[in-house]
Amino acid sequence: MNSLPESRQQQILALLQTAETLSIRELAAELDVSQMTIHRDLNKLAENGLVLKMHGGVKLAAESIAAKPAAHTCGMCHQPISSRNAFILDCPDNEQIGACCPHCGLMMQCSENTPRVILATDFIYGHKTNALGAYYLIGSAVTVCCSPSVLAFASPEDGAQFQRGFGGDLMSYRQIQAYLRNIHLEGRHDEI
Ligand SMILES: [Zn+2]
Ligand SMILES: [Zn+2]
Questions:
Q1: Is 44 exposed, middle or buried (0-12, 13-18, 19+ CB in 10 A)?
Q2: Gap from CA of 19 to ligand 2 centroid (Å)
Q3: 48 and 124 housed in the same domain
Q4: Which of 60, 62, 113, 141 could anchor a disulfide with 166, C-beta 3.0 to 4.6 Å?
C-alpha cells in the first residue's frame, strides 16, 4: 500500500465514490493507517473543497452537491448551465446556486453568509475544482457565453499554456473577483 499523503488522499476520494459516506474508522481500516492520519488527510481534502465533513463521517463535496436539486439556469444571467463550465456555490442554508460560467459565478453570493463550498469546472479536464484555489483566464479568444469570457483552470500551468494559445490575462480567485466587481460597477456608472 502506497502511503504517500497525496496518493492516499486519491484513494480516499476513490473509496468515497463507491460509498456515500464513510467514517474515519472505516477509512483507517481500509487504508491500513491510523485514524489520526486519516483525520489529517480529510482536513487537507476539506480545505480543498473536495470533501464535506459531517458528524460521524465524510462524503464527497461534489456528491452532496449533486444530490440536491440542480440549478438549470444561471443565477446571474438566466442562461442554461452546461456542466462543462458550471460554477457552483453551496450555501449554508442548504441552497445551491449555479452559474453558466466563472464570469457569472464570481459575481454571485449566497443570500446569507459565505458559501460552504465554491466549485469551478476545469476548462480542460471538466472536473470540479475548488474555486478559491483555481486560476482564471479572462478575455481570451475563447468565448463560451458571457463577455469578457472567463475560463477556470485547476492548475496555473494549464492556465498559462492556454493563455499562450488564446491570449487573455491569468488571475487568481481574489484578483479576478476584484476585477469583475470593478467592471460591473463601472457598467452601472457608480463611483468607485
Ligand atoms: Zn450566467
Ligand atoms: Zn456565462
A1: middle
A2: 34
A3: no
A4: 141
Residue 95 shares a structural domain with residue 20: no
Distance CA 77, CA 46 (A): 30
Q: What is the pLDDT of residues 18-62, one digit of tens each?
A: 887 899 999 999 999 999 999 999 999 888 888 888 887 888 887
CA–centroid distance, 158 to ligand 2, in Å, is: 21
For residue 101, how far is its CA from the centre of ligand 1 (angstroms)?
6
Spell out which residues have Cβ within 5 A of ligand 1, the ion.
Answer: 74, 76-77, 100, 104
| Backbone phi and psi for residue 73, each to the nearest 5 degrees, phi listed first | -125, 150
Dihedrals phi, psi of 104, to nearest 5 degrees: -70, -45
Q: Residue 103: which domain range?
A: 87-187
Point out the ligand nearest to the CA of residue 101.
2
pLDDT per residue as tens digits for the range 142-190: 988 999 999 999 999 999 999 999 999 999 999 999 999 888 877 655 4
Query: What pLDDT, on a 0 to 100 scale, did the predictor assign at position 68?
Result: 52
